[in-house]
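Data card: per-record layout.
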Amino acid sequence: MRIATWNVNSIRARSGRVVDWLVREDIDVLAMQEIKCKPEQFPAEPFEEAGYELVLHGLNQWNGVAFASRLPMTDVATSFPGMPGFLKGQEGPDQPLEARALGVTVEDIRLWSLYVPNGRALDDPHYVYKLDWLARLDAHARDELAKNPDLALALMGDFNVAPTDADVGDPSFVHGVSTHVSDPERAAFAAFEEAGLTDVVRPIVPEGFTFWDYKQLRFPRNEGMRIDFILGSHAFADLVTDASIHRNERKGDAPSDHVPVVVDLELEGEDDDRPMIF
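The structure for this 278-residue chain is written out next.
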């Protein structure tokens, strides 16, 4: 099974490109972030014609998460327990939930498509929201693995955190000044490993960015960041046979500012005759 995550940065602007890539790379399940539309606005027809079912969660022109899968999806959840909400200018509990999390089960594997809040600035309420959001996600993952240590669980998506200095090539992100690289954000990301989740791509692809800003010629200069991840439980990691970051998807006409991250899984009884990716 081939699973991928991709912040598509507006699916209505890039549906053709995304579907072409899905078919070309023989992707079974794609987690998408920033679809930026409501379900009724999603360009479903080309996905369905290519053989993909869709599960969508979008509330407005911001955020939004989705799955496209050639395999059946069950146990759909549009939030995780304890997930905090946010509304600018308001504080306290019971704020509206944003479309930032979507969970499905495919072949007994629990998958989440996640778009972690940006944080905006270190002194912005959105930064506090981001840290709370990550902490609640971590708590949910710990709870799920405590109940079922053999659960094949993957948290996939745009985490908006560069966990090490090697993951930062964009000079506009400065430690101690900028979001994405602050100590609290990195500590929140590291907590997932303590919870029993590992970055299943890094051991296979130790270098490489997943995001390049559109401005300041960041992509030609390779001034990017590694902020898109697939974090897997031990049971999930044991299934991984290969991984790749598809840098070339940042090229061409109207690309997203993020690129796909892919893992191959070997499931019991699965006959995998797909070609190798070079």
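Known properties of this structure: The longest helix spans residues 125-147. The domain at 2-265 is CATH 3.60.10.10 (Deoxyribonuclease I; Chain A).

See the next section for split statistics.
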